[in-house]
C-alpha cells in the first residue's frame, strides 16, 4: 500500500521528545521541502500505518538519512537516497520518520564529501554552483514516497535478474530477495509477459528452499529465442515484464533480451552488431519528487528528436520513470554511480560506497536500456583509490555489462570553451568516446527574464554567478561580445 499523505514539520530536533505539538501540516507524498521554498536540513513525517499481517515492511525512498519510530519505539537508521529502506515494522499505529539532508561543513565540502549524492550534492549546474552557496536548495525529503508492504511469514521483498545468451536461446538468472523467520520450502510462480507488443506469456512454477534470515535466493530459467530489445533506429525495443509471486505477494521488473559488450577496438556491440553511439549527458531534475512519467516521456522524446540513441545519467541516479521511458523507447543508458569530484579518503567512506554501488546494481540492473556502469565522474584525489575498488564491485555484481572506473577529465572535450579553439576538435580530443563536450549557452531573453527577473538586464553578475554563468569562458575563451 502506498501512503498518499503525511503530517510534516521542518524541525532540527534529534529525537521525537524534542518536537513541538504545533506547526505540523499535511503534505502529499512524494515530498521534498525545497519545492515548497523551505531552506531546511531536517524534516519530520508522521504517518498512520495500515494494519495487516502477519508481517509489515516499510519501503521508503528518502534523501539522504532516514530514522524511524513506531509508537515511540526507535527502529533504526538508513543512509542513501536512490535505493529504498526496507524495514520490518513492529505492531503499532503511527510511523514517525526523520529525514535529514544536512549541508556538509566547509572543509569536508567540497573536496572530502561524505554524502553519496553526486551532482545533487555538488555541481556546476546546481544552485550556487561551486561557490560556498553550492549546497543551497538541497534535495532532502521523501522524494519517492512511502509504501507499507503486508506479507506472509516468508516475505518476498525484492526481485531482479541477470541475462546471459546460450546456444539457441537465453539463460535467465532470477534473484529473489526473501526474508524468512525460519527455514522454508514454498512454491514460487514466475511469469514473463510482453509489455509493449502482443505475444504469449511464459510461466514456470517451482519450489524455493532457503534458510532463516534475509538474503537472495536464485533460480535459473532456460528460455528459447526471444524477440530482441533494440535501439529505436535499428529495430523495435521489445520489452517484457518478469513477475514473481510468493505466498500471495508479487513483484515485477522490466526484462529485455539483448547483449551488450565492447569489442577489442572499444566499439559497443549491441546484439552482436557495432553501434555508433550518439549521446548526451542528462540531469532531468535536482528534485526528484517533482518528476513524473509524463516528464520522462517528454525528455526521451526530445532525445529521439535530436537523433540520439544513448544518454548518460550524469553522476547521479535519477527518477525511476526516466529509466522506464528509455526501456520503452529504445534509448541506451550509461549509468554513473553518484560520485562527483572529491570524497573522503578513509576506509569507512570506501566501505559505504561499496554498499551503495551494489545497491545501485540491484535497483537498476533489470533495465534493458542500461548498457554500462561507471564508478565516478571527474574524480580528483580519489581517482586511483575508489575507482578500482568500485569498478571491481560493479563487475562482480553484474558480469553482463561493461564497467568503467571513471569518466575522466581527459575524455571531456571542451576546446573553444574551457581551453583552446573550436578547430582543436580536428585532433579528436577525448577519443575514442568523449563522455562530455559542448559549451554553455544562455537561454532566450524571455526565459532569462523569467528566471532572473530584474537581474537579467542590465546583468547583475552575482545573480548570474549563482545560476552558474561562466564569464571567463564566455567572454575570454569563446569571445562572445556583450550586447546592448
TrEMBL record:
GO molecular function terms here?
hydrolase activity, hydrolyzing O-glycosyl compounds
InterPro entries from the xrefs?
A: Galactose-bd-like_sf, GH, GH2_Domain-Containing, Glyco_hydro_2_cat
Q: Which GO terms describe its biological process?
A: carbohydrate metabolic process
Q: Which residues form a coiled coil?
A: none
Glycoside hydrolase family 2 catalytic domain spans which residues? 266-408
Name a Pfam family for this protein. Answer: Glyco_hydro_2_C
| UniProt protein name | Beta-galactosidase
Its source organism is Thermus scotoductus
